[in-house]
């Protein structure tokens, strides 16, 4: 009986990119960055002693939760099928032994493991030699996914693959025929649109508020400057979203909806995010050179506050909400600096309280989702599901304070300088109360996703409120 038809032919599978749709080396790097960022400075020193030593140090100092990794369901099913047929199933990977321990425990399907240890990087030809030493040349089936696996496929009786192109599959069939070939989701433009949160750029529309509030939106040069600021803020915000997603991978993978994000699901490779983030920052500050220095300063403050939020404040209850509202307010301030318009205290006060309301709404909606999923606390945040009733009180209160600020503005002397009939602006107050109350009612009924901004963009009633508000502004200006 030939090796390829032997029912007991051992099945050996690679880990990174094959069994899981991610790379454990980058996973441990991110854990290291999240727990002890200064350890990253030692990576060049560790690398001087070889890749096995680097992998060992990262595996020791930054262990990953293997059970949360994005396993490829179809590959796992194939392994279980082989195990049910009494075929030996081995994990053969260049990842460090410490990493594979959790993988073996999570799946409970492997008979044994061949993995990198101190001084021995089990990759390519070295992996092939170890498998041949154990099973003999042509004595095993191997599942891989990359160019580094060709030496192993050449030594195997049967070659299976994940994500190979049609031409490479044909080549593999000539070398080690009879294997299975699994598809892998390839990064698409839509994946990057989701990762960069392009839909969240609607928040950067706040940069246009100073221009609109001062009634100078007919001045083209100011519109162009504000649009440049909008793009700069968008690029910087997207870089922050990417970094947050990378650092939040473990928590996102346990979340009922965030687990489908491009990096958490393995749809986009981690290395691409680590490359995209600094490029977006560079693009943002390049655009900022066309604007006043004060705008660049706001970008720096925004980036610094986001770093503080990501590393510290997002895990501190209420403090995270306050900082989020400040980040919204910075967008308004940046819009004023971009076009040289002084932002009024009224606009800043309104913005801070209104967006604090939205930040509370986001947290409340997230807790409702967790409660529905049977969870008791938010992973990586100091919120519990039973905190939801308190947020249901704090959030609307913040929104109604914003309404009070708006009412005081309508009564102030400042409004008379911009509107012929300031009293008409009182029509904004009931519109705002309606919008805030309606969204909290929807959240209470569980109809708000974890991001209220997304719902507002898709909500016809919100567009109706916006249209009526613009009509009020027009009447106050023209009558």
Shape: elongated
Largest sheet: 6 strands, parallel
Top CATH class of the largest domain: Mainly Alpha
Task: Please give the order of strands in the largest beta sheet.
Answer: 3-2-1-4-5-6
The chain-level structural class is mainly alpha
Q: Treating each run of at least 4 consecutive H or I residues as one helix, how many helices?
A: 20
Name the helix and strand elements from N-terminus to C-terminus, one letter apiece: EHHHHEHEHEHEHEHHHHHHHHHHHH
CATH topology of the largest domain: Farnesyl Diphosphate Synthase
Write down how many β-strands occur, each being a DSSP E stretch of 2 or more residues.
6
Spatial separation of the terminal alpha carbons: 94 Å
Q: Approximately how much helix is present in the residues? A: 55-70%
Instruction: Indicate the CATH architecture of the largest domain.
Output: Orthogonal Bundle
Tally of domains: 2
Tell me what portion of residues adopts beta-strand conformation.
5-15%
Mean pLDDT: 90
Give start-end ranges of low-pLDDT stretches: 1-5
Cα-atom Rg, whole angstroms? 28 Å
């Amino acid at each position: 009986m030939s090796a390829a038809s032997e029912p007991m032919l051992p099945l050996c599978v690679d880990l990174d990119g094959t069994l899981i749709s991610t790379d454990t080396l980058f996973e441990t790097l991110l854990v290291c960055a999240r727990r002890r960022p200064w350890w990253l400075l030692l990576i060049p020193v560790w690398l001087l002693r070889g890749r096995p030593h680097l992998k060992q140090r990262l595996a020791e100092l930054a262990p990953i939760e293997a059970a949360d990794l994005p396993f490829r369901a179809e590959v796992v099913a194939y392994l279980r099928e082989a195990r049910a047929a009494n075929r030996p199933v081995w994990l053969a990977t260049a990842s460090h032994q410490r990493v594979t321990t959790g993988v073996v425990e999570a799946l409970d399907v492997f008979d044994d493991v061949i993995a990198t240890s101190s001084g021995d990087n089990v990759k390519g030809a070295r992996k092939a030699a170890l498998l041949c030493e154990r099973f003999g040349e042509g004595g095993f089936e191997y599942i891989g996914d990359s160019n580094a696996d060709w030496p192993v496929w050449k030594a195997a009786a049967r070659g299976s693959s994940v994500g190979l192109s049609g031409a490479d599959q044909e080549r593999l069939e000539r070398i080690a025929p009879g294997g299975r070939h699994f598809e892998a989701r390839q990064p698409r433009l839509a994946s990057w649109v989701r990762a960069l949160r392009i839909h969240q750029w609607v928040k950067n529309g706040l940069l246009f508020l100073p221009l609109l509030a001062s009634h100078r939106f007919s001045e083209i040069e100011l519109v162009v400057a504000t649009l440049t600021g909008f793009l700069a803020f968008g690029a910087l915000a997207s870089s922050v979203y990417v970094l947050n997603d990378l650092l939040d991978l473990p928590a996102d993978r346990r979340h009922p909806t965030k687990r489908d994000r491009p990096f958490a699901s393995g749809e986009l490779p981690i290395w691409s995010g680590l490359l995209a983030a600094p490029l977006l920052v560079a693009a943002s500050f390049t655009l900022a050179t066309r604007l006043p220095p004060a705008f660049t300063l706001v970008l720096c403050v925004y980036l610094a506050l986001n770093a503080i939020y990501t590393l510290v404040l997002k895990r501190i209850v209420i403090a995270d909400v306050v900082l989020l509202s400040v980040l919204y307010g910075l967008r308004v301030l940046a819009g004023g600096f971009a076009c040289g318009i002084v932002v009024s205290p009224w606009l800043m006060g309104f913005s801070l309280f209104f967006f604090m309301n939205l930040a509370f709404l986001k947290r409340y909606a997230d807790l409702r989702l967790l409660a529905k999923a049977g969870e008791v606390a938010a992973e990586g945040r100091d919120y519990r599901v039973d905190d939801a009733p308190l947020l249901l009180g704090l959030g609307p209160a913040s929104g109604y304070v914003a309404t009070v600020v708006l009412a005081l503005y309508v009564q102030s002397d400042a409004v008379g300088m911009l509107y012929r009939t300031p009293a008409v602006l009182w029509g904004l107050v009931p519109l705002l109360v309606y919008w805030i109350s309606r969204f909290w009612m929807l959240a209470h009924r569980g109809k708000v996703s974890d991001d209220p901004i997304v719902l507002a963009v898709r909500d016809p009633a919100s567009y109706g409120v916006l249209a009526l508000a613009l009509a009020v502004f027009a009447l106050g200006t023209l009558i």
